TrEMBL record:
SUPFAM superfamilies: Periplasmic binding protein-like II. CDD domains: PBP2_NrtA_CpmA_like (cd13553). GO terms for molecular function: ATPase-coupled transmembrane transporter activity. It is found in: Endomembrane system. It comes from Methanobacterium formicicum. InterPro entries: ABC_SsuA_sub-bd (IPR010067), NrtA/CpmA_ABC-bd_dom (IPR044527). The lineage of its organism: Archaea, Methanobacteriati, Methanobacteriota, Methanomada group, Methanobacteria. The keyword tRNA-binding does not apply. It holds the Pfam family NMT1_2. Keywords: Cell inner membrane, Cell membrane, Membrane, Transport. This is ABC transporter substrate-binding protein. Gene3D superfamilies: Periplasmic binding protein-like II. GO terms for cellular component: endomembrane system; membrane.
Length: 317
């Protein structure tokens, strides 16, 4: 039965990516090229795409699924992408290294979790000492959240074996008993209890309540050269975010279609995400608090100001 579940899991969340992966199209100079992680956090993007809101507002948008946030930051910096939906951790790391990007919109708060096997002897984060844990990347906010939680129990990186891997492979790796636990973003948290291959040990909102997660970034060059298109894109994001908040079932259908997952999984996972859009003072302060945490943990080497991180000209509240 366990082997059967692993096969089904492969068919549900691994096999579809071969058909769903989109590559950056450099042949259309008029298109806004947008990169995103394969996660429910980008639901507003999927809603706008599914409802053809961009086309209705005179925008041509091409989306590309990319597996890590650091790759999205690099692609935006190089101009291969114009806009990225990406985690705050690789964003802050990029800005601290002098990459000329800005956060122009908020996407979500919370939406991640630590997962263990069903009936696991791991019943508390304290039990993760000397265990093998999978994460979606060294530069991911999920790894920061994991290490922050472990520090509460005096567990350091020397006390655990952390393995970074493609997020699509993480649940099946737990199902195959190759790791003791994993931390990921939705829907790869909710898929574990749905497929009966894992149970949620702790949600990220219980690690740091209301923590910032994903943001919208663009290059300073794109801001300067295409302010009108960016304004329109971000207004659509704001309206689509409101749609996500008020139409959860319809949103679950659209996310299922975009990520080729499962409607029941999506209705579960969307409940654990807080969708936002404005980079108002409250969101900025939230990011600055998280940045201070990352500095204390050694993930960042310098403090940044709000002006260095954000451009509030569009969705500043």
């Amino acid at each position: 039965m366990k082997a059967y579940r692993i096969i089904i899991l492969f068919l549900v969340i691994v096999l579809p990516i071969w058909g769903a992966w989109e590559f950056i199209d450099q042949q259309d100079p008029d298109a806004i090229k947008v990169g995103y992680l394969p996660c429910d956090h980008s639901a507003a993007l999927f809603v706008a795409k599914n409802n053809q809101t961009y086309e209705k507002n005179g925008l041509k948008v091409k989306t590309t699924q990319i597996s890590t946030g650091s790759n999205i930051v690099d692609a935006v910096a190089s101009g291969d992408l114009d806009i990225g939906y990406v985690g705050i951790t690789p964003t802050l790391q990029g800005i601290s290294k002098g990459i000329p990007i800005k956060v122009v919109g908020a996407v979500n708060l919370v939406g991640s979790g630590i997962v263990v096997e069903p009936n696991s002897p791991i019943t508390s984060p304290a039990d993760l000492k000397n265990k093998t844990i999978a994460t979606p990347g060294v530069s991911s906010i999920q790894q920061v959240l994991l290490m922050y939680e472990l520090q509460k129990y005096n567990i350091t990186s020397a006390d655990v074996d952390i393995i970074s891997m493609n997020v699509y492979n993480i649940p099946s790796t737990l199902a195959a008993h190759k790791v003791d636990a994993y931390i990921s973003y939705e829907p790869f948290v909710s898929i574990a209890p749905y497929m009966d291959i894992g149970e949620v040990l702790i949600y990220s909102n219980d690690i740091i309540e209301g923590h910032p997660c994903c943001v919208i970034i663009t290059s300073e060059k794109f801001i300067n050269e295409h302010p009108d298109e960016l304004q329109k894109f971000l207004e659509i994001h704001q309206n689509s975010t409101e749609y996500v908040r008020t139409h959860p079932n319809e949103t679950a259908e659209m996310v299922t279609q975009e990520l080729t997952t499962n409607y029941n999984v999506e209705t579960m996972s969307l409940q654990h995400i807080i969708f936002v859009s404005s980079v108002d003072k409250g969101f900025q302060d939230n990011v600055l608090r998280f940045m201070a945490l990352e500095n204390n943990m050694g993930y960042l080497k310098k403090n940044l100001t709000s002006d260095e991180i954000f451009d509030t000209s569009f969705l500043g509240g």
